[in-house]
Write a structure and sequence with these properties.
Blueprint lengths: L2 H10 L15 E7 L2 E8 L7 H15 L5 E8 L14 E8 L7 H15 L3 E5 L7 H5 L7 E2 L2 E2 L2 E3 L2 E5 L14 H14 L5 E7 L6 H9 L4 E6 L3 H16 L4 E12 L6 E2 L6 H9 L3 E7 L1 H9 L12 H21 L1 H4 L5
Parallel strand pairs: 2-3, 4-10, 4-11, 5-9, 5-10, 11-12, 12-14
Antiparallel strand pairs: 1-2, 6-7, 8-9, 12-13
Helix pairs in contact: 1-2, 3-10, 5-6
This protein binds adenosine-5'-diphosphate and magnesium ion.
């Protein structure tokens, strides 16, 4: 047990994004011990930024094992640039494309999609949010970011909301104009979004899907080979039936479902702190377990979430300690699972898809 064995152990430590030892990418930058004070500097990409706290803890544990005499341990994580490669035929550069779907509207799909995007961005990831809900685009409302799309060179410029790159069908169609979408139009609209928006290099592209219908999911499964899906539902039995349909729809178009989120799972009374399970309890978790799908977490019914959504100030949910931990947990759980999946197939992990 020495500084040398610690150094070797760090070199063997797998990058959670790829499963490949840190030595391969020269990601161990420094290992130093001055009079019992151990300093370690390692580099991970922004894709796994949400896992930094637990990575720091794992590395500190490694230090304690190899240098039990250490009095103070400082683990610094710096950025390891690892850009995404173009995935699929449209040239989109995003490491993971996460479709957020549900069996029906009104269950909080847009709220969850936006919250995932915000939580990942706040943790340090590069994030885009595409509102592909052609029947009821609500991202402009939830963010307060409005307007009509403009050009950036030969591409369409995304809007910015708290550092997230944003695009919505609502920015392409005048708000007072009704559009009747048919299959081929949907296909070309979605392809335009993926190909022609200047997304830049993304860790995550979150897509707010229209409820139910398989049209857009089918298009996405064809043009983005690595896309995966998160299904949002509320706990009552009738809503779960819709969630089962949404899962079946994704599975039919060969998009793996990587998580179930239970929204409006309970109401915690702000006056008394007492919990009321208005729509029942734990239904989505139980369903996910039975179906062998990862359960990412739950979000309580919270008046603040609704108010901030209506005000176009959803980012403020992250300053509310009765809401933020739930949203962060779901996003971090998703990254943990996706990283695990990609690290299990190390060859694929070097490609931009999952
Ligand atoms: N956990 C929650 N607590 C309170 N209100 C919520 C919650 N989740 C969503 N809402 C509100 O419910 C409404 C529908 O949510 P939205 O995300 O637009 O659903 P969907 O996209 O599934 O139609 C919005 O007004 C939103 O602010
Ligand atoms: Mg919506």
């Amino acid at each position: 047990m020495s500084l040398e064995t610690l150094h070797q152990a760090l070199q063997r430590f797998p990058d959670p994004e790829t499963g490949i030892p840190l030595s391969v990418g020269k990601q161990v930058h420094e290992v130093r011990c001055d009079d019992g004070h151990v300093c370690v500097t390692v580099a991970f990409s922004s894709y796994v930024a949400p896992l930094r706290t637990e990575l720091r803890e794992k590395i500190a544990e490694l230090v304690r094992t190899h240098l039990p005499e250490a009095r103070q341990i400082d683990v610094e994580i710096v950025n390891h640039p690892r850009p995404a490669l173009p995935s699929g035929q449209l040239g989109l550069t995003a490491k993971s494309v996460v479709l957020v779907g549900s069996g029906k509207g009104g269950v909080g799909k847009s709220t969850v999609a936006l919250s995932l995007a915000l939580a990942l961005k706040r943790a340090g990831c590069e994030v885009g949010l595409l509102d592909a809900d052609v029947y009821g685009p609500s991202v402009p409302q939830l963010t307060g970011v409005r307007g009509q799309a403009t050009k950036a060179g030969d591409k369409i410029a995304p809007f910015d909301y708290d550092g997230i790159r944003l695009m919505s069908i609502g920015y392409m169609v005048p708000p007072d104009k009704a559009v009747i979408w048919r299959g081929p139009m949907l296909h070309s609209a979605v392809s335009t979004f993926l190909r022609d928006v200047a997304w830049g290099n993304l860790d995550f592209l979150i897509v707010d899907m229209p409820p139910g219908t398989g049209d857009i999911a089918l298009t996405l499964s064809q043009v983005i080979p690595g896309a995966c899906a998160v299904v949002v539902c509320t706990p009552q039995e009738v809503a779960l039936i819709d969630a089962v349909k949404a899962v079946a729809m994704f599975q039919q178009v060969k998009i793996p479902v990587v998580g179930v989120v239970e929204n409006m799972s309970s109401f915690i009374c702000p006056d008394t702190g007492k919990r009321y399970d208005i729509f029942g309890k734990g239904g989505a978790r139980q369903y996910a377990e039975e179906a062998g799908l990862p359960f990412l977490g739950e979000i309580p019914i919270n008046i603040g979430i609704r108010e901030r959504g209506d005000e176009g100030n959803s980012a403020a949910n992250f300053s509310d300690p009765t809401v933020a931990p739930y949203l962060e947990k779901i996003a971090f759980q998703l990254v943990r699972y996706l990283a695990q999946k990609s690290a299990q197939s190390p060859i694929k992990a070097q490609l931009p898809v999952l």
